[in-house]
From TrEMBL:
The keyword Protease applies. Belongs to the peptidase A31 family. Gene3D superfamilies: HybD-like. It holds the Pfam family HycI. One of its GO terms (biological process) is protein processing. SUPFAM superfamilies: HybD-like. InterPro entries: Pept_HybD-like_dom_sf, Peptidase_A31. One of its GO terms (molecular function) is enzyme activator activity. Keywords: Aspartyl protease, Hydrolase, Protease. This is Hydrogenase maturation protease.
Amino acid sequence: MNDVRTIVLGIGNPLLQDDRAGLEVARRVFELGLSVDTQELYTVGFEVMDRLMSYDRAFIVDACRLGNKPGTVMEVRIEDIFSSKSLASSHAITLGATLKTAYQLFPDEMPGELRIFLIEVERIDEFTDIMSPCVDQAVQQAVDIISATISPVPVSHTGGKNLTAC
């Protein structure tokens, strides 16, 4: 499995409280020292496409506001985020539209395995680098899920595999 080129792409705004969740997941995965590339993006535009090309497997993590309990971790498919009006964002183009376009234009260059995780935010209106406690726990939960997939040996443990909020 070591020859599988893998990327963890965290998306968010580093200046807004819980919107930084995706970025924090990428940073924590990087700190684990796994054989995986990690990158941070502050937009969901076509840069996402550029970052994912040539990888075999990709994990994308972003914050969302869908009305779930804050700290809920959801795994979604491209079709889910492409067709859902509630997943439209303040970004210039939605993540779903970017990914759908990428797979239509460059199917052989995009990852064969793509997992998308969304973390429900509590607050995104405050400029701070400290996340809400529930979102911080959800970030670690996402890190644990991703690292367990990448590494056959557990590198972190926070408890069960429940994908619900605290």
